[in-house]
Design brief:
The chain starts with a strand and ends in a 17-residue tail after the last strand. The protein is of the alpha+beta class and 111 residues long. The chain has one domain: Alpha-Beta Plaits (2-Layer Sandwich). The chain has helices at 13-22, 69-80; strands at residues 2-9, 29-35, 41-45, 48-53, 55-64, 88-94. The longest helix has 12 residues, at 69-80. The chain is built from 2 helices and 6 strands, in the order βαββββαβ. Strands 2-5-1-6 form a 4-stranded antiparallel beta sheet, covered by helices on one side. The radius of gyration is 17 Å and the shape is elongated. Helix 1 (13-22) packs antiparallel against helix 2.
């Protein structure tokens, strides 16, 4: 089991969601976050350059079984990619345990 976390541009969310649905990935969690990597927006205030602003982004988290990892990553790249700085990042981490609260199922069955 893996946890796939993607940080993408806000405007790309609908396209990423559509690509995930095409790949039969239906269970996702989405939240609003702020930050910056290489994509920094310096602001000038009263003639002085201020520290880079935090840029609004979308964080998507998807728990998948191992055989769904590549298709999930491919769908995110297809939906979020514009080939420019600021497209985002995808992190794939091991998921130690998953428990469905309602039924107490564990592991791959719970995902």
């Amino acid at each position: 089991m893996k946890l796939i976390t993607a940080i993408i541009r806000e405007v790309q969310l609908n396209k990423v969601h559509e690509e995930l649905l095409k790949a039969n990935i239906e269970r996702i969690t989405v939240g609003r976050v702020s930050g910056h990597g290489q994509q920094k927006r310096e602001e000038i205030y009263r003639g002085m350059i201020m520290a880079p602003s935090l840029i609004p982004k979308i964080k998507i988290e998807i728990a998948v079984n191992d055989d769904y990892v590549q298709r999930t990553v491919d769908a995110i790249i297809s939906g979020a990619g514009t080939n420019s700085v600021g497209d985002g990042k995808i992190f794939v981490t091991n998921l130690e345990e998953c428990i469905r609260i309602r039924t107490e199922e564990r592991g791959e069955k719970a995902i």
